[in-house]
Amino acid sequence: MATIELTKDNFNETLAENDFVLIDFWASWCGPCRTFAPVFEGASEEHGDLTFAKVDTESEQELAASFDIRSIPTLMVVRDKTVIYAQPGALPKEGLEDLIRQARELDMDEVRKEIEKQQAEEPGAEG
Known about the structure:
CATH class: Alpha Beta
Structural class: alpha/beta
Radius of gyration: 15 Å
Keywords: Disulfide bond, Electron transport, Redox-active center, Transport
Low-confidence stretches: none
Number of strands: 5
Number of helices: 5
Order of helices and strands: EHEHEHEEHH
Protein name: Thioredoxin
Number of domains: 1
Pfam family, one: Thioredoxin
CATH topology: Glutaredoxin
Strand content: 15-25%
Family: Belongs to the thioredoxin family.
Largest sheet: 5 strands, mixed
Domain Thioredoxin: 1-105
């Protein structure tokens, strides 16, 4: 599957319509971003059942700011509309493959229960 370009106009729709999305926050002037790009593209070709997307942090500053992206490249993994991974840094192919494997193996029911538990424990949290 080809990598799609995410913008503030198609971001919510893309996450709503896809259960498993990997998002690369990048910029054209960023050396590590250019190094990571072929790794990300290669994984998108190998994992056609997943959605691979890129956010150009230069043209989509508002979107990058809404996720508090401070360092690029930042890779974010969203499953069932829940961010399960968000870390800056360019991963090697093996690291990205391992991350995808781990993300596939996650029990999302357990993840949601853990999030609900953490939210309930936060001071001032509303239930």
